Amino acid sequence: MANKINIFKHFLLSSALFFASTVAFAYEPQDKDYGQNTTENPEHATNEEHKEGGFDAGKMILEHVADNHQWHMWGHTSIPLPVILKTDKGIEVFSSVRFGHEGNLSYPGKYYSYALEDGQVVVIDEAGINEEATAKITDFSITKNVASMFITMILMLWVFLSVAKSYTKNPGKAPKGLQSFVEPLIMFVRDDVAKPSIGDKRYQRFMPFLLTVFFFVLFSNYLGLVPFFPGGVNLTGSISVAMVLAAFTLVITFFVANKHYWHHVFAMPGVPIPVLIILTPIEILGLFLRPFVLMIRLFANITAGHIIALAFFSLIFIFGEMNTGLGLGVSLFSLVFTVFMGFLELLVAFLQAYVFTLLSAIYFGSAVDEGHDVHNHVDDHNVARTTH
């Protein structure tokens, strides 16, 4: 019982450090296009483009999977989020509602006038986008991804504080309620992920991080599948968030790695020196490829799931613009595949949390493995036979 309570305490501490470090990277800038500025009135131009064009599936999908300074609810209803900008003249704080529902308005701030260009806050003047002033902006805004991260953090704290309280109030009793749901997942991470990958003697020191990253990815993935507030955010499908998660794995691996691990990286035992000239650079490159693969796997799988589901949904409007009857006919097909993708994403959401945690545990296990030569292995085998 004491071990379980300690696990929760370490988990909460690890969560606090994890979120504090990750928030700084959660805003994912969009590709900047400072080339041509074709209008002095962004609102007028955007409205005209909307009237001239039909349904833009690509724009709709990108708006749903990308970060934003507003949390879109329905129609023209959005939850405004705080915009926090550090400029060369000072700090500006204002609500994103100043940019309008479509993000097509400019806001005359204290130091500069600001607008949104492809999701990026830029400085504008009479000539258009002021590239020099824009380059000096540091954006600390609470964007949709950051807000979703805080929601996930609050949800995790509520869940685990409640479960820890249940352990304290009912020691030695069978779990019930929320406790009965969370405990099997914790035991799963411990018994099926940490112990086999790291070892029975060393796994405990890594449990806080493994539990934190597992439940963070799991909760974020499932919240992202909820089509209404506070869900619907592609948090783990953000390349910056996935990068920070993978960077944590890389830093911890380097921090705990022992002499045996580094010896195998820089000079693998029993390998001729001419071969080491080729093998060592590959091993060093592999150190950074592992977290890179972690990042791409999480980012690509989660984002692809959202894009495919939205693509099927978009077929209704694309064919509906051609012919109303055709749109109604395609809607049945799209609905079936959208529901199918929804169920598939439920599975993928758990699998990605599991795979990310498992691979992190494997990397930790290889970093702390002491290794043994053939003679030690034979001696250990003989000792085991003698004991039995």
Tell me what the structure shows:
With 388 residues, the protein is an alpha+beta fold. It has twelve helices and nine strands. Strands 5-6-7-8 form a four-stranded antiparallel sheet. Strands 4-3-9 form a three-stranded antiparallel sheet, with no helix packed on it. A two-stranded antiparallel sheet has the order 1-2. The radius of gyration is 26 Å and the shape is globular. The relative contact order is 0.11. The C terminus is likely disordered.
Question: How many extended strands?
Answer: 9
Strand content: 5-15%
Number of domains: 2
Give me the strand/helix succession: HHHEEEEEEEEHEHHHHHHHH
How would you describe the shape? Answer: globular
Q: Output the number of helix runs.
A: 12
Helix content: 55-70%
Provide mean pLDDT, rounded: 81
Uncertain residue segments? 8-52, 373-388
Order the strands across the largest sheet as they lie in space. 5-6-7-8
Structural class: alpha+beta
First and last CA, distance: 32 Å
Largest sheet: 4 strands, antiparallel
Q: Radius of gyration in whole Å, from Cα?
A: 26 Å
